[in-house]
Write a structure and sequence with these properties.
alpha/beta; UDP-N-acetylmuramoyl-L-alanine:D-glutamate ligase; Protein-Tyrosine Phosphatase, Chain A; 6-stranded mixed β-sheet; 16 helices; 14 strands; disordered N terminus
Length: 468
Amino acid sequence: MQTKKQKVKNTTPLIAKQRSYKEITTLLDGQWSESLRSTSSRSMTQLDKALGSPSKKLKVISIGGSNGKSLTINFVTQLLTNEGLKVGSFYSPHFIAYNERIAYNNEQITNNDFADISNEVVNTAASLDINIHAEELLTMTALYYFAQKNIDVAVLEFGHTKNFDATTICTPIISAITRFTDIDEVDQEKVKTCLASFKSIIKKNTWVISADQNKFNLQTIQAMAEEANGKWAMPIRKLANLAYPFEQLHGRCAALAERAAQIFVQEVATSGAIIIQESLLAKPKGQRGRPTLEAKRQSKLNPKKTTEQYWDETLNTLPGRFELIKDTKPMVLLDNASNLDAFKNLLLGVRLLHYDRTLKGLTIIVGCENNNLINTEFYKIIRYFFKKTSGQILFCPVTKDAQNQTEWNVEQITNDTKNVKVKAKSTKTFTQAFDSAKKAVDEHGGLIVITGSRAIISEYWQTKGSKK
């Protein structure tokens, strides 16, 4: 009589591997393949549950849109930390180190904490036989880190892509949409389809705010909010009173951040267990009758700071977003503008700088990760800009890395730009472009603008041998 051999289940526990910080970053570099991108929340939900469900423990503000997401997150973080809250921020992209994406009260996560938390996430994923994309791994690292820090609120960037976005495993209390831009805005059905991606950050009872200026976009977003039983708030109309020239550049993002932070303070913080003293954002309860003489005296002795005064003293502290480096000769301006709308805003900022103090030479270096700027609209923008402001534009390739595996046609965009009578040339490397730009402008009053992508800003810092 033959007996079947039973398979003995391996009960040996998995040994958690402890990787160094460098090993973690190397692992992340290898996880950017498009084939690893999830089309559903299944893997992230499994991983989240295995790690104690950090997504369920966090109060979340989600920031989406085509441009200005990171700036808005930065301003929301500054406002809420000013209120005395513990705030976790999750940005993208990074320029030098992955740590740049995760911050606690605007302080970047340390190498040790990043390695420890990432190890926990990676080992848990391995135990579940989950091979996740780098963005999902980073998202879970951020959520787990924030939960350990016992933060009051997490401000997360929503990627607005056709694929599943890992941050959507959280249920946001507030969803703020900066603005939506599409090259073919005339095709309303196409725009409506693109806007539908925001549905994943609009849940029941979620406050929904937008700084978009397009009436059709606002009506579509409002309809989505009402369909999900969310709470539609009035859209942003005014600019925050930032110092020159940032009011025109970042004023709408700052105003959106103020509204989002104010809703959180009014609707969540002050009605819960969070204690806020001397709040800048909370609306004081109405006082019946005239104030007493003592109240008037105290008001004169200790005048309350207004939001206008706050913004006048506040600057964006996020690298790579209209970052003006004045201690170099000549001055350098870094901006990761990678689409037409962002590029228009960058050129507006350069003009405002020029109006304030005449630039003694201007060179714009553009290095892209794709061919998005090779279109008629871009050439019109460039031609108009250089009619009003003298200077030149250089196009160069960018070094490929884990996140950038595509090539863009440098020669085509250079020739097309020349055809619209703009002074343009191409170089073989960023180093050549930067050396050429330094020779073309005055070192004491000139300006070199480096833009077009995350990759070219990263290359600038690598060339400088600096880690900011």
